[in-house]
Amino acid sequence: MKLMEDRIRQDGRIREGGVLKVDSFLNHQMDVELFNEIGKEFLRLFGDCAVTKILTIEASGIGIACVSAQFFHVPVIFAKKNKTRNIAGDVYTSKVESFTHGKVYDIIVSKEFLHPEDRVLLIDDFLANGSALQGLIKLVEDAGATLVGAGICIEKAFQPGGDLIRSMGVRVESLARIKSMSVEDGVTFC
């Protein structure tokens, strides 16, 4: 998606350690007009998949998933990183290692909201090592639901996550695929 690539070039900031900061428009301050275009593009890509639920992980994926869900006319479920009193009863759970935070989280979704008849689209802001998507995929599988694919805003194609998830037979559609990036040379797209 040229719009996403242009926005990364314009407002993205590369930091040492393979970090791309897009917090001015994607995952801290949110450009809702951009999110509308993202939602339209995900609908174009997955609109024929009979999606019944969109699943993401807290926190950065929630805004993108919510705006996208308006185009699909389906609810959003977000996997929580901590069990709270709000979630009563049985839950699906999985482990996720955060590239950004260098921490392992137990993610959970209430069994009340994810069912075998659901057709689930995963949405997230980044795909790097694939841990978040693997965790979300496990939740969908544990529910006996059908995974229709994953919509990703930015994929770091130079990291193993995209190849790993695709090798699992999952359809991954990334709006911007980064081939390489460095503080000195900037970003190169696939």
UniProtKB/TrEMBL annotation:
Enzyme Commission number(s) of this protein: 2.4.2.22
Record's GO cellular component terms: cytoplasm
Keywords: Cytoplasm, Glycosyltransferase, Purine salvage, Transferase
Sequence positions that bind 5-phospho-alpha-D-ribose 1-diphosphate: 128-132
Sequence positions that bind xanthine: 20, 27, 156
GO MF annotations in UniProt: xanthine phosphoribosyltransferase activity
TM ranges: none
Pfam families: Pribosyltran
Keyword Translocase: no
Subcellular location field: Cytoplasm
Catalytic activity field: XMP + diphosphate = xanthine + 5-phospho-alpha-D-ribose 1-diphosphate
UniProt superkingdom: Bacteria
Location, primary (coarse class): cytoplasm
Residue intervals of the Phosphoribosyltransferase domain: 52-156
Function (record text): Converts the preformed base xanthine, a product of nucleic acid breakdown, to xanthosine 5'-monophosphate (XMP), so it can be reused for RNA or DNA synthesis.
Annotated family: Belongs to the purine/pyrimidine phosphoribosyltransferase family. Xpt subfamily.
Subunit structure: Homodimer.
Name used for this protein in its record: Xanthine phosphoribosyltransferase
Organism name: Lawsonibacter hominis
Organism lineage string: Bacteria, Bacillati, Bacillota, Clostridia, Eubacteriales
